[in-house]
Automatic annotation (TrEMBL):
<dbReference type="GO" id="GO:0007165">
    <property type="term" value="P:signal transduction"/>
</dbReference>
<dbReference type="Pfam" id="PF06554">
    <property type="entry name" value="Olfactory_mark"/>
</dbReference>
<dbReference type="InterPro" id="IPR036727">
    <property type="entry name" value="Olfactory_marker_sf"/>
</dbReference>
<protein>
    <submittedName>
        <fullName>Olfactory marker protein a</fullName>
    </submittedName>
</protein>
<dbReference type="InterPro" id="IPR009103">
    <property type="entry name" value="Olfactory_marker"/>
</dbReference>
<dbReference type="GO" id="GO:0007608">
    <property type="term" value="P:sensory perception of smell"/>
</dbReference>
Length: 174
């Protein structure tokens, strides 16, 4: 089950057969995708059929898998203040320097967690538990054949990247 972490030591209390991976923003890739959008806008061209353009409230994040024999364990996320964050996995071995992101490369289900504006700031985050479980399991499956995986993080309803901490815990299969 996802849980809220309040300190780094909360994450370190796991046992030695677990691996915690933090989602890291990929600013260069995010910027490259933003440049694609602005280039299309400047030239008046349309996106390719099926192309997925980066929206203004989105950024590209990544997970690097140094160990690929993993089973999904749980999510760790915290969000200061209010808002909604959605995480969409990119399933293909996407080579952003060679190809544009296509909608068919996006994983389902997406991960979503949020705190409504009327909720107290210290209230627990809400999430779609079954979707988050399945999403975590899909990430673990893809880790077996990939060393890096990319994700689109969308920040909505006043959520900001600076207020987010998001990691996923795996158990080592070996």
């Amino acid at each position: 089950n996802p849980r809220i972490i309040t300190s780094r030591s909360d994450m370190d209390n796991g046992n030695s057969n677990t691996l915690m991976l933090a989602f890291k923003e990929d600013p260069a890739l995010t910027e490259m995708m933003r440049l694609r959008v602005s280039s299309l806008q400047r030239s008046g061209q349309k996106r390719q059929d099926g192309e997925r353009l980066l929206l203004p409230h989105e950024a590209v994040y990544r997970l690097d898998f140094h160990n690929q024999e993993l089973s999904f364990s749980r999510w760790y996320f915290s969000l200061a203040a209010h808002g909604r964050v959605t995480i969409t996995g990119i399933c293909q071995h996407w080579t952003p320097d060679l190809t544009h992101l296509m909608t068919r490369q996006l994983l389902e289900p997406i991960g979503t967690f949020w705190r409504n504006a009327e909720d107290p700031e210290e209230s627990p985050l809400k999430w779609l538990e079954a979707d988050m479980q399945e999403f975590g399991e899909r990430i673990a499956e893809l880790a077996k054949v990939r060393k890096v995986m990319y994700f689109l993080f969308a920040f909505k309803d006043a959520a900001e990247a600076a207020n987010l901490s998001c990691s996923v815990e795996f158990t080592l299969d070996k």
